[in-house]
Design a protein that fits this description.
The structure is a homotetramer of 338-residue chains. By secondary structure, chain A is of the alpha/beta class. Chain A has 11 helices and 14 strands. Chains A, B, C, D: Its EC number is 2.5.1.54.
Chain lengths: 338, 338, 338, 338
C-alpha cells in the first residue's frame, strides 16, 4: 500500500501518517520526492477497511493498493492455465469445446431434440435453463425441477453433459442432483451466499461476468468459489453494460487476453447474450475463437422463432451447423481445434 | 408494440409481418410513411419473447415496445405518492426521515452507542449490517444472528426502529424476527428469489438500486415485491457505475425527479456509498434534500477511523450533528421538514 | 511514479527495472514487501511516454503515477477558490450568479425579449448560441456572425453580459469581438487547438465537461487554457454519458465537491442539458445550489415550445421566475445568496 | 415519429396532440390500444427540435423517432459495401489492408525506417502523427509541418501511401498537401467544423469513433463528410470508454457486425489504442480479422521502448512480422486475404 501525500502537506502530517501506520502494524518507508512525498507501507494481513481511513487523514492525497485482492485465481500463484474437466470435456487446453442449447428448457421433447441437433453439429455440452432469472416478474421463470428432469433425459439420450443455471442458494442441492456443471448467471456474480455454497460442492462452475463487473471483481467472485475448495471454475465473458444500445450488451472481447494475463482460469465467450441479435452471433463467435477463448456458449433452438425466451438472439440448428464449420476454420488458424 | 420496417422493405415483407402478428394474437395497424412504413400491434398479454422474433424477420428494421414492463410501481396506476410507514416513521410525506448508523454491527456496545448518538442528533431509524456482502471472500462478512441481536438491543435501548440487510433467501425468516425494515443491497437488486420472498412478508423493504440498473429495471425489481402483495417498498439511489473514478460511484441525483415522474414509490438517497469519501457526504446530503428525496441514509460511527468496513466514507457523530442542522435548513427551503 | 513488481518477479527483473529507471534519470528506491516489491521513482520532468515502457518490462505488474497531470488548476498550487469576474459578475464568491437564455439565437427580437425576461427574473448573464455544434448535419447550425450581432443588441438593450459558444479556432477572433465570455461546448473539451487559442485571449472561458471526460481530464483541459496565460476559467458540469437513458445525460452532481477538493476554479451546473426534460430542471437546479455550485446555467425561451433547438429541455419565463425564487431559498439555506 | 400517450391520458390530451401535430405539418394516425393509445406521425422534413416539444405536452408519455438521422451512410440507401480506394489500396473488398507505423513522427530517420520495416512485413499504408492531440498541455504535440515532410520522405522512399491526423480546421489545407488519407481522431469525432471541411476535399478520410460515441452518432459524423460530397470515408473502431480499467478503452468488437448491418461504409479496427498494452495487440488484431473488419491499424515503432508517445501499446517490427503471419491465417479462415 502506497500513501501519496499532498504537495502542500506539512511535516507533521507525514509524521502522523507514519505513526498511525505503525499503530496498524505496518513498516512505513518514506520516499521523499521532488514535488511530494510518498510512504510505502509493508505488512500483509491488515484489515483493508481500517487502513482506508489513512486516506482521510490531513495531508494525504490518496492511497494506492499494491496487493491484488485475489490470490487463488491469480496467475502469479499458478502460472500455467488450468484445465477444467467436465465429464471428460476439457476447457483450457488445445481443444475449444462448444456449449449449445436453448435458453429455456420448454419441454422434454424440445430439449431432447435440441440436444440431438447440437450434438450432431459437434457441440460438447448441452445448455438449458430450468430456473430463469427474469427482469420482469411477469415473464416465464422456468420449469424448475421438471426442467432438470428433462435435461437429464436429454443427457441420457445423447450422452452430452449438461450445464444449467442455479439462482438460489436454496436450490443448490436440487440442481446438484441433475447437473454436470453449475452455471452462475450475470445477475448473481455477487450473490456471495450462492458462490460460497458452490465452492463447497465438487462440480464445476461456469461463472458469468456481471453486467458491471470489472475483471478484477470477476476474479474475486471466482475467488469465493476457489477459497471454499472447488478449483473447477470456468469464467464466461457475456458482455458488459455501456452507453451503446445497438447491441444488448457490449462484448468485452479484451477480457480474454486480460484474464489470460492475470489468471490461470479458462475463459469462454457467450456471443448470444452480448450481441442480443442472431445476425451478430456468427461474427462474434469467430472473433471469440480468434482472440483465444477456451470455449463458446451459444443459444440454439430447434425453432428459434418459437423460443420462449431470448428468441431474438437464438440461432437455428442449420445456422449452428454452418457456424461450427466456420469456427473450426478459425480455430485451426490460431493453432487450436474443435 | 411498434414494428418499424426498413426503407427497402418489400410489400411481401410487410404482409409477412402482418400475418405473423395476427398469428400471435395481435391486431396490426399499418401506417404508410413517406420514407418507411410502421405497423402498430395492439393486444396485451402476449409473451414478449416470442414477439421479439418479429424483429428478426426480413424487412424489419427494429421493434419499439410501448407498454411499460412495470405496472404496480407505476404512477399511471396510482398517481399520488405512497406513504410507507416504518413503525410510525413515514417516508413519502412532508417529513424527511434520516436513517443513520454504522456500516457493520461490530459489537453490542458499538451499535448501542451509535443508536444513542444518531438518535440524539435527530435520526429516525438505525441502520447496521449483520450480514455483509463483500467483494472479497477474505473481508469481514458480518456477525450474522449475533449482530441482529445487538441491533435489537439498540432498538430496546433507544426506541429507534432498525433497518438491516438480508442477502440470502435462506435468512429471510431469521432477519424477519429482528428487523423493522429489510434492506436489499445493490448487489441483490436482481436476486429475484430474494425479492419474491420479501414480497411475501409484511415488513417494509428498502430496495437499493444496483450499480448498473436502469431506472426502469429498478422499478421492475420493485414490481417483484409489489406483485407478491407487499406494497411497502422504499427505493434508494446509491450511485451507479460509470467511467468516473473520483467517487466510489456516480450519484445519479436525477433518479429522484425521474422516479417521482414515473412511480408513486418514495425514494431516498445514500450519499455515503455514492461519494465513497466522508468529505463529500455533506454536500451530497444537502443536494439530496434539495432535489426532492424522501429521506437520506448516512453511515455514522462513534469512531469512524476504527470502523470495520466503509471507514473512508463514514462520518463522526459530531459531523452528523452539524449535517443534520444543514439538512434541516435545506428541507425548510424546499417546503419540507425534518 | 511507483513500479509494482509481480509476486513471481525474479531479482534480475528488479535490477533491470532499477537500471532502466536510472538511465531515464530517476532515483529509484526499492521497498521490499512481504508479497511483492515496489520501486519508488523520484525525479520530475521525465517524459511520461518513455517511462510507460517500464510497465512492459518483464516482472513488472503495473505502474502507478503519483504526480497530478495538472498543476495550474490544482488546489495544491492555489488553495483558495478563484473568483472569476465577467464584467462585474463574480463566480466563486458568496453570490451565485445565474446564466440564462435560449439555446439558439433565432432572431434579434427573440434574443432581446429573452434578455429582458431573464434579466427581470434576476439572471446576471445572457446565454445564446450563434454557432451550434449539431450531431446531425441536417440540423440548424446557428446564424453565425448575424447571431452575434443580435446578442450584442440584447446586451445593449439590457446591460447583461453575454456568453456564447465558439466551436472553431477560425472563429475565435470573430466571437471575441462580440462576446463577454467564451463558451466551450462538451464536444470541444479536447479540441486542444481551440483551447490553446482561448488561453491566449483576455476574456473568461466557460468550459463545459465532455460527455465522457473524467474530472481529471476536465482539469487538464482547463490547464490548456491556464497554461497559455488566461486564468479566467469557469468549469461547467453538464452531465456525463452512462447506461441510463431516462435522462439525456447523467448529471454528475458529485463533480462539484470533487472539483472543490482538487481545484481552485469555480464550477457551475447546467441542469438543462443534463436532465434533457423541462420537468426535471427545477429539481436539478435546486440540488445544484445545495451541493455548492458557484452558478447555474439554464435554457429559457420566451416560447419554449417554438424553440428551434433543445425545446424539450427549455423552460418558460414564468417557470424561470418561479425557479429563481426557489433557488434563492436554497442559496440562503446553504449560506450564500443570489 | 410515434407519440406514446400515457395510460391515464384524457381524450382532450389526445386531441390536442393531434391538432398540434397537424399544425406542424404531419398527418397523424391514431392507434387505439388496450392499455394506451399511440399516434403515428407521417411527414418528413419537419424540424426535429420543434417536434420534441410534443414530448412535453400533457398526457404524452414519450416520443419514438422512426427515421434514421443518417441517410447517405445508410445501407438502406446503398446496400452493397463501398470500396474506398487509397492510392490503389482498397478497403471494403476481399483484401484486408493493414495500416502500420509509429504513433508520432519523431524524425525523418525514424519514420523512414518505420516505413521500410512495416512495408517489408506487408503493411499497405504508413501511419504517423505530425499533429498530436494530447490530454496534457505539457506532452509532446508533434512536429507539425516538419513531420508532414518526413512522412512525405518516407512515402518517397517506400511507395507506401500515408495517413496522418488533422486536428484543426486551420490546418486542413496544409495537411492536404502531404497526406494520402486524412485521419480524424477520436477527440474530434464531433468537431463538425473539421468534418465539414474534410467533406469538401477529394481525399479519403479515416474517421475514428469517439470514446463515448454511439454507433448511430458515429454514422452521423460520417454523414457530415458524405453530405459535403466526399464519399470516401473509412470508419475505425478504437475502443469506447466504460467502467473497465484493465484496458485503456473497451474495444467494441460488435461495432463491426452492427456497422455492416446498418451502413455500406468499410470499417477497420485499432487494437493498439483499445487495448493500450502491447501484450494484447496480437489477440485483438486476430479477433478483428475474424469478426469481419476491413482493415487493421497498428502502432509499430523500430524501438518501441523509446517511442515518444504510446510506447506501452506499440509493438516492435519483429512482433509485427509475426502478427502479420497470424492475421493472414485468420483472414484465410474467414475467406479473405491480406
Amino acid at each position: 500500500m502506497i500513501v501519496v501525500m499532498r504537495m502542500d502537506a506539512e511535516e507533521k502530517h507525514l509524521n502522523d501518517v507514519v505513526a498511525r501506520a505503525e499503530e496498524l502494524g505496518f513498516s512505513p518507508h518514506v520516499i521523499f520526492g521532488k514535488e511530494r512525498n510518498v510512504i510505502g507501507l509493508v505488512g500483509a494481513n491488515v484489515k483493508k477497511d481500517s487502513v482506508c481511513v489513512i486516506s482521510e487523514m490531513p495531508g494525504v492525497d490518496n492511497i494506492v493498493p499494491i496487493s491484488k485482492p485475489y490470490k487463488l485465481a491469480s496467475k502469479e500463484v499458478k502460472p500455467e492455465t488450468s484445465i477444467v474437466d467436465v465429464c471428460g470435456v476439457k476447457f483450457g487446453g488445445g481443444e475449444i469445446p462448444i456449449i449449445a442449447g436453448p435458453c429455456s428448457v420448454e419441454s422434454e421433447e424440445q430439449i431432447v431434440r435440441s440436444a440431438q441437433m447440437v450434438k450432431a453439429a459437434g457441440a460438447k455440452i448441452l445448455r438449458g435453463g430450468a430456473f430463469k432469472p427474469r427482469t420482469s416478474p411477469y415473464a416465464f421463470q422456468g420449469h424448475g425441477e421438471e426442467g432438470l428432469k428433462y435435461l437429464a433425459a436429454a443427457r441420457q439420450e445423447t450422452g452430452l453433459p449438461i450445464c444449467t443455471e442455479v439462482v438460489n442458494p436454496r436450490n443448490v442441492e436440487l440442481v446438484y442432483k441433475y447437473t454436470d456443471m453449475f452455471q452462475v448467471g450475470a445477475r448473481n456474480i455477487q450473490n456471495f451466499a450462492l458462490l460460497t455454497m458452490l465452492g463447497q460442492t465438487d462440480k464445476p462452475v461456469l461463472l458469468k461476468r456481471g453486467m458491471s463487473t470489472t475483471i478484477e471483481e470477476f476474479l474475486m467472485a471466482a475467488e469465493y468459489i476457489l477459497s471454499e475448495g472447488n478449483q473447477r471454475v470456468i469464467l464466461c465473458e457475456r458482455g458488459i453494460r455501456t452507453f451503446e444500445t445497438a447491441t444488448r450488451n457490449t462484448l468485452d472481447i479484451s477480457c480474454v487476453p486480460v484474464v489470460k494475463d492475470k489468471s490461470h482460469l479458462p475463459i469462454i465467450i457467450d456471443p448470444s447474450h452480448s450481441g442480443g441479435h442472431r445476425q451478430y452471433v456468427s461474427a462474434l463467435s469467430k472473433s471469440a475463437i480468434a482472440v483465444g477463448a477456451d470455449g463458446v456458449i451459444i443459444e440454439v433452438h430447434p425453432e428459434p422463432d418459437k423460443a420462449w425466451s431470448d428468441a431474438a438472439q437464438t440461432i437455428s440448428p442449420e445456422h449452428f451447423i454452418q457456424l461450427m464449420g466456420e469456427m473450426r476454420a478459425v480455430a485451426l488458424a490460431v493453432g487450436r481445434y474443435m
